[in-house]
Every structure is written in C-alpha cells, then in structure tokens.
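Hello Y.,

Per our agreement to keep a running log of every chain we model this quarter, I'm adding this entry. I've kept the format consistent with earlier entries: sequence first, then predicted structure.
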Amino acid sequence: MKNTNRERALVALIAMAMMVSSPAAAQGLPSADDVWDQAPPSAPEQRAPQAEVAAEPEAVVAEEVVAEEAVGAPEEEPQEGAEVAEAEASADGDDTEAESVEAPVVRERISPVMNLEGAPGFHGIASAISPGALQFQVGFLGEASGGTNVIRLNDENRSLTGNVAVNGQFLEYFGFNFRMQARNNVNTYGRPQAMLSQGDMTAGLIGRYEVSPGVWLGGDLNFFLPSGFGGVGLSGSALSLRPRLLASFDIEEMAAQSSDAWVPVVAHLNVGYRFDQSENLVPEGVQLDRIERFAYGISAYDLVEFGVGAEVPLPYVTPFVGWKLGVPVNGRGGVCDEDRALRCVSDIGGGAFPQTFSLGAKAEPLENLGLHLGVDLGLTSSDAEGLGVTLPYNVIFGMSWNIDASGPKVIIEEREVETIVEVEPTLGYLVGQVVDAESGEPVGGAQIFYEGRELAGQISDGEGGAWRSYGFEPGEALELRVEHPHYEAALASYTVSEGEGTLEVQLTPLPREAWVRGQVTDAEGNALADALVRVSGQDGPVEVRTDEDGRFEAQVSAGDYTVAASAEGFLTAGQDVSLEPDGELQMVLSLSEAGEQLVEIDEERIRINERIYFETGAATILDRSFNVLNQVAAVLLENPQVERLQIEGHTDDVGNADFNMELSQARAEEVRNYLVERGIRSERLSAKGFGSELPLVPNTSNRNRSLNRRVEFKILGEEE
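Predicted structure for the entry above:
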C-alpha cells in the first residue's frame, strides 16, 4: 500500500533522527530535534504561505530533502462523513463491495555474525554475501569442551579457547578478517597437564560478487600464524595458508524474482585447500604425543576442506546447521612409521577424517549487538597418527558488534524550500599523543580525562598512542589528566584553536618489580641460617643470605629466573620460576646433605661418575640413583647459563632393536621428568633415545654391555 506524503515525511524524519546522535550535534551536525523542527507540512496543497523570517547574522538558505518511496499522485485524505455515506449506501442496497488492502509484512534480518576466523558466517562456515561497503565488526568467540576418554583411554580433558576477531568491508566486494586466539588444554596424562598456547593469529582477504539476484560467488585466502611450541612467540616457519572458494545462495531473494513466496533460507558452500606447516613448530628431535598435538593444533597433513551450511534468517533470530569435512593429504615424512602409537590415515580410511556437525543460533537483542551460541559435534570415529583429535563436542559462544561507517542510506528527492538554518561555529580539536618519558615509545591504553567537564574519558590507541578530542569552541582552555596503570599520572593544559592542534604528553614509568620470598631448611625441616640464595636472570645474579629463621627475600624485575639455595655441607636446591610484574613468589627450599661428589660440568657435558639404574627392561628409576640425579639438578641450578640440556638414553644390543629404541627414549624422558620435579624448567630439557646405535665400546662382553647401558647429559646451548 502506498504511503501518503505525510507518512513519507514522517518516515524520513524518524530515520534521520535515529541516525543523528548528540555527539554528532556537538561537532556541528544538526541534532534530531533540529531535523524535526525543519519537517515539511503533511501535504503540499495544505501549505500556508511562509511567514517572513528575519535573517540571523549567520544564516544560509538550504534545500530540504525528504524520503522518496511512493511514485505517482498521493492518496487523498478521507473526508468527514465518508463512513456515514458508506453506511447509507449499504442500507440502500448498493451492491458495490469495499475492497480492503492489507499492508505488506516487512520482514527484517539480523546483522551478520562472525565465524571462528573472524569472517561473516558461523563456526567453520564462511559466507560469500557482502554485508556492504564500509561495514565492520569486532567480536569475541569462546570455545569450551570437556569429558573423559577424549584423547587417551581413561583421561580427563578440558579445553577452553578465546578468539578476539575483527573484519571489515572497505569496498562493496572486497574485505578482510583477523583473529587472535588463546587456547588452554588440561589433560590428566599431559606433561605438564595444562598446555597453553597464546597469540595464534589468523588473517585473511576475501572477494565476492553477486552474479545474479541472490547468488554470490567469491574466494578468500587465510594465513595461519601459530605461536611457538609451548610458548607465546610467533613462529614464522609454521605459517600455513588456505585458499578457498565460496558460494552463497539467498533462496528468499532468488524466489522473489519469480513469485511472492517467502523462503527464509540462505545456503553456503566452501571448498578449500589448507597448506599446513604447523609441524615446523616442533623442535628438532622432539616427538609429539597425542595430547601435545591436539593442545597446540599441530597436523602432519595438508587438508582438502569442504563445508556446507544453511541459515534461516528470521526477524529476531537465525538458527543454523552446518557440516565440515577435512580430507588429509600430503602427509609429512615419517608420519606413518611402524613404531607409532596410532594407525595411519591410509589404513583407517574415511573414519579418521576430521568431521563435525554444527548446530546453533544467532540473535540480535539490541541493534548492532550480535549474540552467538552453538555446538560442534565430532563425527570422526577413529584417531590417526599425525592428526589432532576431533572433540566429541565443542560449545561455541560469543558476541559481536557491527559498525556501519557508510552513513545513512536514504533515497531522496530534492524539493526547493526556503528555510533558515543557523550555521554552527567552527570547532577546534586536539590531536594528542601519549609517549614513554624514558624511551619515547608510544603508550597505548592510556586514559585521557577532561578536568571539570562532564565528558567521558578517551583512550589512546595501541599502535601510535594517539587520540582525537571532542570538538570545543576556539579559545577554550582544557585541563587534561592522563592515567595508565604502569605509569605515573600526568597533567597537561591546552588552549583550543580552530582546526586541529597537537599535544604530546609524556608519562614516567612506574617500577615494575617482583618479590621472591621464602625459607631454606634441611631435609628434616630445620631452618638453615646464613644460607646463600642466588636469583639469576635478566637482572644478573642477586644474592641474599637467610636470617636466623632461614628466611630470605629478594627484589628483582619481572621475568624468568633461577632461584638456587646453597649451604656448606648441603646439596644445592632451587627452582626455575617466572615472576609477574608487581607479583610475589613464596617458596620453601629444602637442602639435603651433599655426600660424595658424583657430578661435574664442562663446556660440552654434565658428566656423572655413577650410572643411573633402572628396573630391568623398564623405565622406572631405582632409588639408588636419586642422589646422582639430585646432584645433576643442583649443577643446573648453579649454572643457569645452561639454557638447553639434552638427556640421551642408550642400551646394549641385547633384544629387539625397536624395543631398545623405545626403552632408551622412555628412560631419557623419565630422567627429564625427575629433573622437572626437582625445579628445572621443562623448556631447558629435552629427551632423546638412541637405543643401541651409539655404543661406547663394542658389545663383546657383559662388562662392555654394562658400560653401553647409560644415560648422558649433553649441553646444547649456553647463554653468552
């Protein structure tokens, strides 16, 4: 049903009032009240002659615009008595029937919501439909899963992942997406149980085009840059990429071309190839177990990826379903060696392919605020060597915020109407920058407050430390207070001038210290006075002595340190620690009697003068070897400059070669675990078994075989 002129004017005014906010008025734009006051009369034929208006000093003649919706003559207003006349006509037996016209139902869709890579879509499915030029999104998506028998039999596994993402469309058919991820996995069989990966990044570009009404085709290219193995630094050698073809079909729009049917379904198809280089995260000589491969997202295969999905865009909520399949190809060398714990993909077949079914819904309870809740159900039936485990279920939840930078979208017609518009005075702006007073580096995240004014504080950006103020009258004096949790607060003054002015605010850093406090005792728990405690790290060694109660404290900068306590007649004990800024670490160091010296260190090795004994045919360390291993730990604590130590296991030539290789590896790992329990940071230690490949002497006698059954400690790197 067509709108009258009055209805069209009302629609335009309401749309303009919603788009113009009070901050816009503060910067010289008309407010919603101004627009309402300038509204045209309800119908041109009823317009009274315009009264003369005295021109203000700053006034211009403008053209008024209204929304154009109806085409043709406006509908006439119903006249008085029309209902009575209609009733009389009916009473007189008039056969004419009044035809009623129903207003069309306006159905709206919610705004797009992100997928797990930050692009429009859901879960692992991407949409080829363009949200329009200058459309942006920021959001957070979390993932949570837990259960038993997930990665290994009788295990308990919990996984929690956070994704911070942003995407945007600078042009109608070209956009980008970016995702930063932090992932934590806890498994009862993990060593350590909790494995944390922070800073995994995904960045992508996408192009799309509507080839016909409702049919969109496109492609995207995503780059995956994981953090280091067991750390937070990015690893460029593990950079993976995935080109992908996208297709989306808006069936409602396609059906509207031939009928008035309402079919609220949007279907998506994704096909891509992932060139996966995540295996390069693994240090040379380290063999991953299943838990590490899953926790750090490491795959030994490329994947051919398929994804299909469908959404039902209802007015307030959009339920969706999806299915995703990965076909492993191009496996890395050695992935299917015969001594691996799991079968190869080629032996299992399709049951090992990563495969999930997605189910959930998107909603928009407030304009531009998108909510997301769904679950991925794992359909993979068998685990395979070289592939991460597909979780039985993974709950995905989050929210996003849509930003429309394109301005109001109103179809307008011009109508010449003289009106008086007051010109807002020219405003001035301050473009400031916050920097570190010592280094001169920009400081992001600083809060800027306007003293004596009821204005919300602003925040300097993370890259350049810059901010742009609100608009103020030229000549106004501003008093600014700048705060940051890691710096002393600073005050600054500025007098506003026309246009943009600049100001640099320097912040003085606060001390970022940490404390190590504790007590040194003997094996029976008695306090040891005057023991030496050395804290070695980035500040250089800090040495303190214990008091009469065996207590000590040391203040150092935040970072990684080796804390070692020593006393005459006792074996050094301690721990590798990480100290957070403004943090405090409490520890108790128990020293055992030194006994005979069995360990010494040179530039290449830590040499032991006594063998390490294990149970026959097993990796269990016998109690008689604890003393020599305690001395190895003491040497590492006394020499924090040894950054990497490789523990090497060797056997004689008796028995199966494969069994000997596995046994030597297990024994080396058991020694590594013992040293970690004694306080040595796991990143300093690696374990490698050589079986019977590197004998010291020929295996020609029982004595020689006894010499060849050994554990050695090789120094791989020292801090210069």
